[in-house]
Write the C-alpha cells for this entry.
Amino acid sequence: MNFSDVEKIADTVLYEGYILYPYRASSTKNRQRWNFGTLYPKQYAEALRPAESFQMTTECLVKSGVETKLDIRVRFLQLVEGEGRGDDTSWQEGVDRSKDFSNLDLNDVLVMPSTVQFTFVAGETVTNAQGVSGRLNLGATRTPEGLIKLHLELVNVTDVEVPSERNHVLLQSFTSAHVLLGVQDGEFVSLLDPPAEYRSAVGTCLNVGVFPVLAGGEGRHTMMLCSPIILYDYPEVAAESAGDFFDSTEMDEMLALRVLTLTDDEKREMLQDDRSRKILERTESLPPEHMMKVHGAIRGLRRVKEES
C-alpha cells in the first residue's frame, strides 16, 4: 500500500524530540536525550529495576471482506554516534529505519498467527550504525460482532551486553517506534469514535506503548497510524507550518523568533547536524508574510445560537 498520504504526520512522530531548542548538541536537554516510543533491547530492558519497555502492543478492529489484504510498515529512528564536537561531547544522529510486510492475507492470519524476524546489519548501509534486530508477532481473532481484531507486537530482540551504559544501548534501540497499517477490501474501525454497535468490541482492544488512530484523508478507513504520541483520528500537520522544529505541540512562530535570537556561535553549532542546519536555513529565509501566517489561523466559523 502507498502510505504517502500519512508520511508527513508519521515523520513528525518519528522525529519528535530529535533535537530541541536551542538546537545545540551541547545543550543539556539534547545531550540527555529522551524520545517517545523507545524500545530498548529486551535483555537490557528486563535487567533494569524497574524494567524499561522493549515491546509495543497494538490491537485494532477490521471490517473484513472475502479477500482482505493487510500491509504493515514498521518504522523507527536508530541513533548513530556522530563526530566528536569541539567541547568533547558526542552527538547521536538519527537514521530512518523501516520494514514492510505487504499483501498479507488477513484470513490466513486469522487461522494461523505468524512471527517474522528482521535485522539491520551493522554498518551495511550507514557507517557507524550498530546492528539491530526485531521481531513482529501477528495474530487475529473474530469478535462476536463479526469484526476481526488484529493483534500486533513489535519486540526489540537485539543482542546486547548486560550491564551496559544507557548511551551505548540507545544505539541499538528502536526510538520513536511506530507502525502504519493499511487494508485492501476492508475497513478499520475508529477506536476513538466507533459506531455504537462496535463499542463493546473496542473496549476489548489492548494497546501498550502506542494507540492506533485513523489516518489519511478525512473519512477514509483504510489506514491507521499506531503512534506513541496521543493523537486524534486523521491527524495532520498545519498547512501554515514551513517545516519541523521537532518539538511537541510546536509553536512555529515562537520557535522561529527564538532561533533568530541565537548568537553566531550557537548558530554555527546548529550547522553540525543536517536537520538543525535546515531549521536555521529555513528560519533565516522566511519572508515576513509567512511569519504573519503562523501568528494565528481560523479553521472554521459556526453560527452562535441567539438567546431566546
